[in-house]
C-alpha cells in the first residue's frame, strides 16, 4: 500500500489503523476531511484522530469500510455485528455519516 | 443485524457526557467562530477538521443547534459586510476583478464551513426548516453584496458598459464577464434576470433600434443585411461566451425585431437594391441572407414570397404579352424556360428549396402563361422546332432534359386540349415529311404526356406512330408484288387512319400522268388486301424528290412538295406557262398554288422557275418558265414551301373553333358520368365537378357547361326537378 493511497485513523486510546483511502472515503465525513478545499490539518497529514471512538469500535468500523467496498462491487454477504457493540456502533455511524 | 440468535446480553446505559460547564455552549461556539474567522482569512491549515466537526456535532446533539445557526449567520454577515466595503473601494476597472476574487474566496470558505457544520446541515436544519448552509451563504452574499445600494447599480452599469464596449469593437475580458455572470446565475436565475438580463435586453433594444435606423439611411439592402447578420452572430457568440444559454432566444429576438422586423418592408422594397433588384441580378448570396434572416421573424418569408410573386407575375405578364416576343414562338418559349431556370436556381441556391416558394413560382407561371391564349400553340411549336432540328447531335440525356422542361411548361397550361390539337398537327407534319430527328425523342415525349394526362390524351398520337409503321410494311408488300415497277418513279404511300390525324378537307389535285398510274396500282393493291376500306389522297401533305437538268446541263435533285412536283412536271412539256394554265392543269387550290409558285420563283437560291413580270408576289396574269441559269452549290436542293410557321389569324380562329367543338362531347360525357353516379345534383355542384374532372385537359367555361346541360335535357338524359328548378335529375 503506497503512502499516498493510505490514511491513518487513530482511536481514543491512541491505536492507529492504516487503511486504504478508498475505504476510508466510505464515510462522508472522512471523505470531506480528506478532500476539503481549505487545507485543514487532516487534509495535510492524512491522519484523523477520533477522541470519542474506542479501538474496538474503530476496528469494527474499518472492517465495515472494506466490507462496504466489496458490497458496492456487487458481492452480497452479511456483515457480522456483535450485539454488545451495536449501540456504540450506531452512535459512531451517526457521527461519521456512514 | 445479522445475529438473530437468542442470547442474553446487556447494554450499558448510555452515559451522556453530562454538560457540567454551563458555559459549554459559549465556549464551543467561540472555537467554531474563531475557526470561521480563520477560514475567511485563509488560515485554515492549523485547524483540525475532526475537532471542529466534533464540536459542531456535540453542539447540535446538546440542543444548541439554534445558537450555532444564529452564530453562523451573524459571523458570516459581518464578514460579508467587510468584503462589501473593500469591494466598494475598488477603483474603476478593478471593481469586477475584486468582486470576482472575493466571490471565489467566499465560495471556498462556504464549502469548508458547510463541511465542518455538516452534521447541523443534516439533522438540525431539516428539522426546523431553516435554509441549508450553502444556500444561506449564497443568500447572504446576494443580500449583503450584490444588492447593497452601492454595488448593485455599479455592477449593472459596469457589465452593460463592457457589453457596449465589445459591441463597438473593443476587446474585453470575457473570462471575467463569464465568471461574474455565472455568479449571478449561481445566486438564482431570478437574480440573473433582474440584475442583468432585463436591463441588458432593454439597452440592447435601444442600441439596435438606433443602429438599424442609422444603417437603413445610408446602406443599400445587401449591405444592411450583411450588417444585421453580423450583429446577430455576434450576439449569439456573446451568449455562448459568457451569458446564460437561455438568453440566446431573448437577445436574438431583440435583434431580429429591431433590425429586421421593424424595417422589413423598407428593406424588401428598397430602391435599386431591394429584393426585385436582387432577383434581376441573381444575387444569390444576398437573397440567401435575406431568406435566413427573414425566416426568423413572423411574416418574414411571406413578405419575400409576395414580392417575388408579384414581380414574377409582372415580368411574366410583360413577357407573354410583348408583341415583339410573339413573333418568334421558339424564342418565346425559350424565354419562358430561361425565366423558369433562373427562378429555380434562385430558389435552390438562395431560398433553401423552400416548398412554399416553389409553389409560389408554379402558381405565378400558371398565372401568366395562361394569360396568352397562344401559349399552347407556341409550346408545341417549340417542341416541333426542337424535334425537327434543335436536337440534332444532342445526347440522349440532354434531350430528356429539354423534354422534361417542356413538360413542366405543359403542366402550367390550362388548355391542354388546345396543346394537343396543335401538337397533333405538328407531329403529323413531322412524321409525313420524315423530318423527325429522333424517333426515340418523339416517343419519349408521348410517354411523358401519357403519364401526365392519361391514355386518352395520347391514344391518337400513338395511332399516328402505328400508321407510320404499318404503312412502311404495306409499301414493302406493294413493291414485292409489283416487281415490274422497279424502273419508274417510286411511290411511297402513308395510309393514315381517319380520326387519328388532323385531316384537312380532301382537296385533291391532278397528279401527273406517271404518278396517277402508280397511285391507281397501289389503290387496287391496298383494297385487294384490305376489304371494306376507302382510300382518299391527301395530296397537300406529300413530298417528292425529282431529278432535273437545267439549261447548261447542270443536274440537281430537287426535294419538293407534291404540289410543287405537279407544277414542275408541267414544264416537261411546255417552256412557258401562264398562271391560269397551271391552275387549270393541276387544280391546286389558289392559296396553296400561289404559295408554291412563290417558293419556286421568288426565293433566292431556290428559284428553279422565273416569272414575268419580276415581283415578289404572284399575280393571276404572271407567266412562268424554267430558270435555265439556276445554280446551287449542292446537288440536292430542298425547296421548302413558304409555310406559315405560326398560324395566321383565320387559321387560329378555325383551330379555336375546332377545339371548342371537340370540348362539347367531353363536357357532355363528364356531366353524364357525374349524374349517373349522383342521380340528383344542383347546378353549382355540377359546374364545380365538371370543371374539376376536366381540369387536366382544359378549363371548362361555365356558360358552355350550362348549354351542354340544356342540350342533355332536350335529349332526355336529364330533367329539372319539378319543385326545385335548380336541381337536375338523371334519367336512366
TrEMBL record, chain A:
GO terms for biological process: jasmonic acid mediated signaling pathway; ubiquitin-dependent protein catabolic process. Keywords: Nucleus. It is found in: Nucleus. The keyword Nucleotide-binding does not apply. GO terms for cellular component: nucleus. SMART domains: Skp1 (SM00512). InterPro entries: ELC1, SKP1-like, SKP1/BTB/POZ_sf, Skp1_comp_POZ. Pathway: Protein modification; protein ubiquitination. Transmembrane segments: none annotated. Residues 6-66 form the SKP1 component POZ domain. Gene3D superfamilies: Potassium Channel Kv1.1, Chain A (3.30.710.10). The keyword Nucleus applies. Belongs to the SKP1 family. PANTHER family: ELONGIN-C. This is Elongin-C. It comes from Salix purpurea.
UniProtKB/TrEMBL annotation, chain B:
One of its GO terms (biological process) is ubiquitin-dependent protein catabolic process. Transmembrane segments: none annotated. InterPro entries: Cullin, Cullin-like_AB, Cullin_homology, Cullin_homology_sf, Cullin_N, Cullin_neddylation_domain, Cullin_repeat-like_dom_sf, WH-like_DNA-bd_sf. Pfam families: Cullin (PF00888), Cullin_AB (PF26557), Cullin_Nedd8 (PF10557). Gene3D superfamilies: Cullin Repeats, Cullin, Chain C, Domain 2, Winged helix-like DNA-binding domain superfamily/Winged helix DNA-binding domain. Residues 374-601 form the Cullin family profile domain. Keywords: Isopeptide bond, Ubl conjugation, Ubl conjugation pathway. GO terms for molecular function: ubiquitin protein ligase binding. The keyword Membrane does not apply. Belongs to the cullin family. This is CULLIN-3A-RELATED. It comes from Salix koriyanagi.
Amino acid at each position: 500500500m503506497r503512502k499516498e493511497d493510505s490514511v491513518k485513523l487513530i482511536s481514543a486510546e491512541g491505536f492507529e489503523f492504516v487503511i486504504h483511502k478508498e475505504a476510508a472515503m466510505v464515510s462522508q465525513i472522512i471523505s470531506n476531511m480528506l478532500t476539503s478545499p481549505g487545507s485543514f490539518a487532516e487534509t495535510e497529514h492524512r491522519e484523523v484522530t477520533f477522541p470519542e471512538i474506542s479501538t474496538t469500535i474503530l476496528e469494527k468500523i474499518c472492517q465495515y469500510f472494506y466490507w462496504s467496498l466489496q458490497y458496492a462491487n456487487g458481492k452480497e454477504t452479511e456483515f457480522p455485528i456483535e450485539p454488545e457493540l451495536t449501540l456504540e456502533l450506531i452512535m459512531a455511524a451517526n457521527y461519521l455519516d456512514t | 443485524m445479522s445475529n438473530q440468535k437468542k442470547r442474553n446480553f446487556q447494554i450499558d446505559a448510555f452515559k451522556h457526557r453530562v454538560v457540567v460547564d454551563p458555559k459549554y455552549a459559549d465556549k464551543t461556539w467561540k472555537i467554531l467562530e474563531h475557526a470561521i474567522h480563520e477560514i475567511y482569512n485563509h488560515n485554515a491549515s492549523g485547524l483540525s477538521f475532526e475537532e471542529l466537526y466534533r464540536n459542531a456535532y456535540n453542539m447540535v446533539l446538546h440542543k444548541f443547534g439554534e445558537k450555532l445557526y444564529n452564530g453562523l449567520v451573524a459571523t458570516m454577515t459581518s464578514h460579508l459586510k467587510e468584503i462589501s466595503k473593500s469591494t466598494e473601494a475598488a477603483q474603476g476597472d478593478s471593481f469586477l476583478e475584486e468582486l470576482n476574487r472575493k466571490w471565489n474566496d467566499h465560495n471556498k470558505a462556504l464549502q469548508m464551513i458547510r463541511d465542518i457544520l455538516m452534521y447541523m446541515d443534516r439533522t438540525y436544519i431539516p428539522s426546523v426548516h431553516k435554509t441549508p448552509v450553502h444556500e444561506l451563504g449564497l443568500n447572504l452574499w446576494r443580500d449583503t453584496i450584490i444588492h447593497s445600494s452601492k454595488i448593485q447599480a455599479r455592477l449593472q452599469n459596469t457589465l452593460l458598459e463592457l457589453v457596449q464596449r465589445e459591441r463597438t469593437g473593443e476587446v474585453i475580458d470575457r473570462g471575467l464577464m463569464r465568471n461574474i455572470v455565472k455568479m449571478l446565475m449561481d445566486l438564482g436565475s431570478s437574480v440573473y434576470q433582474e440584475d442583468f438580463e432585463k436591463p441588458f435586453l432593454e439597452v440592447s433594444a435601444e442600441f439596435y433600434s438606433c443602429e438599424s435606423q442609422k444603417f437603413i439611411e445610408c446602406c443599400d439592402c445587401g449591405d444592411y443585411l450583411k450588417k444585421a447578420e453580423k450583429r446577430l452572430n455576434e450576439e449569439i457568440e456573446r451568449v455562448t461566451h459568457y451569458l446564460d444559454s437561455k438568453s440566446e432566444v431573448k437577445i436574438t429576438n431583440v435583434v431580429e425585431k429591431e433590425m429586421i422586423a421593424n424595417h422589413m418592408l423598407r428593406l424588401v422594397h428598397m430602391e435599386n437594391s431591394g429584393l426585385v433588384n436582387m432577383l434581376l441580378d441573381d444575387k444569390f448570396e444576398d437573397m440567401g441572407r435575406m431568406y435566413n434572416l427573414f425566416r426568423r421573424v413572423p411574416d418574414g418569408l411571406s413578405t419575400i414570397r409576395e414580392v417575388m410573386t408579384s414581380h414574377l407575375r409582372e415580368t411574366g405578364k410583360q413577357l407573354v404579352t410583348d408583341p415583339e416576343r410573339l413573333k418568334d414562338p421558339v424564342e418565346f418559349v425559350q424565354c419562358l424556360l430561361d425565366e423558369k431556370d433562373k427562378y429555380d436556381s434562385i430558389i435552390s441556391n438562395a431560398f433553401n428549396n423552400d416548398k412554399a416558394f416553389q409553389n409560389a413560382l408554379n402558381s405565378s407561371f400558371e398565372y401568366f402563361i395562361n394569360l396568352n391564349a397562344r401559349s399552347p400553340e407556341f409550346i408545341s411549336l417549340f417542341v416541333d422546332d426542337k424535334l425537327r432540328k434543335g436536337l440534332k447531335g444532342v445526347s440522349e440525356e440532354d434531350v430528356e432534359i429539354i423534354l422534361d422542361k417542356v413538360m413542366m411548361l405543359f403542366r402550367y397550361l390550362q388548355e391542354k386540349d388546345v396543346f394537343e390539337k396543335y401538337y397533333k398537327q405538328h407531329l403529323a407534319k413531322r412524321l409525313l415529311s420524315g423530318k423527325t430527328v429522333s424517333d426515340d425523342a418523339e416517343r419519349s415525349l408521348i410517354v411523358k404526356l401519357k403519364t401526365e394526362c392519361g391514355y386518352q390524351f395520347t391514344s391518337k398520337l400513338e395511332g399516328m406512330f402505328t400508321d407510320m409503321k404499318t404503312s412502311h410494311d404495306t409499301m414493302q408488300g406493294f413493291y414485292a408484288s409489283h416487281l415490274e415497277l422497279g424502273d419508274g418513279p417510286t411511290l411511297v404511300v402513308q395510309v393514315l387512319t381517319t380520326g387519328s390525324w388532323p385531316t384537312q378537307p380532301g382537296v385533291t389535285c391532278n397528279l401527273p400522268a406517271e404518278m396517277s398510274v402508280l397511285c391507281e396500282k397501289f389503290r387496287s393493291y391496298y383494297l385487294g388486301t384490305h376489304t371494306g376500306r376507302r382510300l382518299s389522297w391527301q395530296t397537300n401533305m406529300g413530298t417528292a424528290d425529282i431529278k432535273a437538268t437545267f439549261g447548261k446541263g447542270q443536274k440537281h435533285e430537287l426535294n419538293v412538295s407534291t404540289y410543287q412536283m405537279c407544277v414542275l412536271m408541267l414544264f416537261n412539256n411546255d417552256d412557258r406557262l401562264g398562271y391560269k394554265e397551271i391552275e387549270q392543269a393541276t387544280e391546286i387550290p389558289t392559296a396553296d398554288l400561289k404559295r408554291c409558285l412563290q417558293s419556286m420563283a421568288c426565293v433566292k437560291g431556290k428559284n428553279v422557275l422565273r416569272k414575268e413580270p419580276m415581283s415578289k408576289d404572284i399575280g393571276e396574269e404572271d407567266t412562268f418558265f424554267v430558270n435555265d441559269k439556276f445554280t446551287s452549290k449542292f446537288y440536292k436542293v430542298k425547296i421548302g414551301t413558304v409555310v406559315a410557321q405560326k398560324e395566321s389569324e383565320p387559321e387560329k380562329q378555325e383551330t379555336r373553333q375546332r377545339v371548342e367543338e371537340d370540348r362539347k362531347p367531353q363536357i357532355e360525357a363528364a356531366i353524364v358520368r357525374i349524374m349517373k353516379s349522383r342521380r340528383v345534383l344542383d347546378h353549382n355542384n355540377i359546374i364545380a365537378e365538371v370543371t374539376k374532372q376536366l381540369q387536366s385537359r382544359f378549363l371548362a367555361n361555365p356558360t358552355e357547361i350550362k348549354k351542354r346541360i340544356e342540350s342533355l335535357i332536350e335529349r332526355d338524359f336529364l330533367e329539372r326537378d319539378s319543385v326545385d328548378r335548380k336541381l337536375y335529375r338523371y334519367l336512366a
